[in-house]
Each structure stands twice: as structure tokens, then as C-alpha cells.
Amino acid sequence: MANRQLSHAYLVVGENRRQLADTLAAAWVCTGDHPPCGTCSGCRKARQGIHPDIFRADPEGEGLKAEAVRALRSDAYIRPNEAPKKVYLLEHSELLSQTGQNILLKLIEEGPEYACFLFLSPNPELLLDTIRSRCETLRAPGPETDRASEGGETLAELILTGASPGQSLPFLISLEKKDREEIGLILEAAVARLTAQLPQRPDLLPVLDRLAPIRAACEFNISPGHLSGWLAASL
Fold first, then answer.
1. Distance between alpha carbon 2 and the CA centroid of its chain, in Å?
2. Is the pLDDT of residue 4 over 70?
């Protein structure tokens, strides 16, 4: 993971997002040959949480005020102390106000090349579209990914076998207890399975077309119950 291969802004989601963000931060401040090498001074300080060029903004989840975001912006124009990059890790980015996000948006677009940003969030749909579009999204695998894979297989099997509404109902009801992110993962897994079957089952194409807007809706503030009902009406 060489520094030149990294973007300068990531949106990190998923249950293990903090571990993934820590790895990215270490890669940015690493001075070894193959970042993150794990042995250089930068990597060791990153692991211990004492690197002077890694800034954890709002670790307690209290929500950064606009004044604090402006102070962060000013700090970003001061060159790194000792690392190739200066890393700003926003652990609860969904709590940023619209004003704060717009301040950061301009910094992402026009800031110094050594400034890097990690937006962590369990609810990325709460971030402005302009922020999300300028970040590369990374999903940290976790237990919910495995559960979603199983759910996707179940949904795909119901569709492939032409299950009746009565047969599908228990699964659809179970979705109401999940969050939007997990429902989105379930739909992704189901779509992948169904897409693989298209050469043998071209009749699945209309189904995939109906699933696409439901998957897209998982990024917005729609309740799991509404998503489940929409899915039931589309099968």
C-alpha cells in the first residue's frame, strides 16, 4: 500500500471501520519502503496513538462545531511535523453540521497535497452528497458482511425458485429488524448471485432492474420497514 497509490480522502464504513482507518493512517505516515511497514518510527507511533501528524477529530462523538472545523482547516495548511502526510481522522463525521461539511469540502478540493482525510461513519447517508462524491468509499468487513452474504443468498434463492409471497414473507419480515446498511449489503449479495445467473436466466433482468432503485434507496433516510415493503412489492 504505497503512499502514491492512496487517495487523499476516504469514507470508511462498516463495523470494523476504525481498524481499517488506523491502517490507512499508518500507511500515510509510514517512512518505510512498503507502507504500512509496521516497523518504522511512523508506524510505531501510529500504533501507539502518539503520532504528531495524525489528528483524531471528535473521538467522543460530541459533534464538531464550525469553529473547530475552521481551526482544523487552518492547521491543515501547516506542513507535517515528520511524516510525508498529515492525516485528519473524523471518527463521527455524520455529526458534522452542513456548514462544517462545506468547510471540509473546500479543503478536500483545494487544500495542500499533503493533507489527507478519513471520514468514518456508521450512517454515511447523513453526509452531504458533495462530500461522499469526493471520497473513495471503503467498507471494512465485519460480522455484518457475513450475515448479509447469507441474507443475499436467501433472497436470491427465493427469486430463483419463484417463491410465493407466503414463502417469502418470513424473510421479508426479518429485514425490518435490520438497519439500512445491512439491507443494502443483502441486496448487493443477492444482485451478484442473480447477475451470475443471467446467461442461463435472462428473465432475471427485469428483477434486477427493480432491485436497483431499492439498493440505491438504502443510502438515504428510509426506514427498514419501507424498504422491506418495497422489496415485497417488487418480487
1. 21
2. no
Locate cell 445467473: which residue? 197
pLDDT per residue as tens digits for the range 59-74: 887 888 889 999 999 9
- Reported as type and span, the H/E element at residue 56 is strand 54-57
Which run of H or E residues covers position 123? none
Q: Give pLDDT, residue 3.
A: 42
Specify the 3-state DSSP secondary structure of 195: helix
* Grid coordinates of 55: 489528528
Q: What angle do CA 147, 150, 156 make, to 5 degrees?
A: 140
**CA gap 191, 31 in Å, rounded:** 41
Find out whether 83 and 53 touch, Cβ atoms under 8 Å: yes
Determine the Cα–Cα distance for residues 147 and 127; give it in Å rounded to an integer.
26
